[in-house]
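Practice problem 4.
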């Protein structure tokens, strides 16, 4: 007859496996440990790590994959660097960061333009296209603005890519009363937060799955990952292991008190 200690370990292992599968094999021991704490489990993170190792439960590992998505060789106007690597924001819709990344697909090249809120870490706007155009980034910005309706003075930071420096994009920022900010030349750290999100997306979705067969499949899986997993479910260590949407909800709830 199994002892109480053995029963507890079996129950703990079952919960660890559940959280691992529920995250679609994306969570490592720190995040699963935090989920267990939320459920009331008193357990050391090392114990969770050991159980995961013993059962072959490993979070997705990244692979190097680099495609150039920034065309800074142009004569378009460059906005000043207002952000200056100050990635802290005290409220939603104070600072947004934007970038483009490559998404591999068997049917043809795809590009993802994303807009991220630095306070909530929420992806507030995104667009997928087979062309890296000004329209791509403009539609991502439009989606973000319509969703959040930010007040005047929001800082929008991007790299020096021709899409973000274009007249059309600058006019759109002006229309929305958003302040444009751009990274210094050749300094990837100036836009590190949005690049970190794209790295997470590739590690947890792109590199853990077979290459997308069609563009429609790519869109559907990106939509599911961004809107339902990353924004609404995935715990973020910088947010006290809350999801971006949960953090935003709590922020506004506290403001209403």
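Answer key:
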């Amino acid at each position: 007859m199994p002892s109480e200690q053995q029963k507890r370990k079996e129950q703990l292992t079952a919960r660890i496996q559940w959280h691992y599968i529920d995250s679609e094999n994306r969570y490592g021991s720190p995040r699963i440990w935090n989920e267990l704490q939320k459920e009331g489990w008193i357990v050391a993170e090392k114990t969770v790590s050991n159980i995961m190792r013993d059962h072959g439960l490993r979070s997705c590992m990244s692979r190097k994959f680099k495609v150039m998505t920034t065309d800074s060789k142009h004569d378009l106007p460059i906005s000043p660097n207002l952000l200056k690597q100050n990635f802290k924001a005290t409220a939603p819709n104070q600072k947004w960061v934007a970038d483009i990344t490559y998404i591999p697909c068997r049917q043809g090249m795809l590009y993802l333009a994303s807009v991220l809120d630095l306070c909530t870490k929420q992806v507030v706007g995104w667009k997928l296209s087979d062309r890296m155009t000004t329209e791509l980034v403009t539609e991502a910005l439009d989606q973000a603005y319509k969703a959040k309706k930010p007040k005047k003075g929001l800082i929008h930071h991007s790299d020096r890519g021709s899409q973000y420096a274009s007249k059309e994009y600058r006019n759109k920022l002006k229309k929305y009363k958003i302040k444009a900010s751009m990274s210094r030349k050749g300094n990837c750290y100036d836009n590190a937060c949005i690049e970190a999100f794209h790295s997470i997306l590739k590690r947890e979705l792109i590199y853990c799955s077979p290459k997308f067969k069609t563009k429609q499949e790519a869109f559907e899986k990106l939509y599911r990952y961004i809107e339902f997993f990353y924004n609404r479910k995935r715990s973020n260590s910088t947010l006290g292991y809350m999801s971006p949407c949960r953090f935003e909800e709590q922020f506004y709830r506290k403001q209403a008190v």
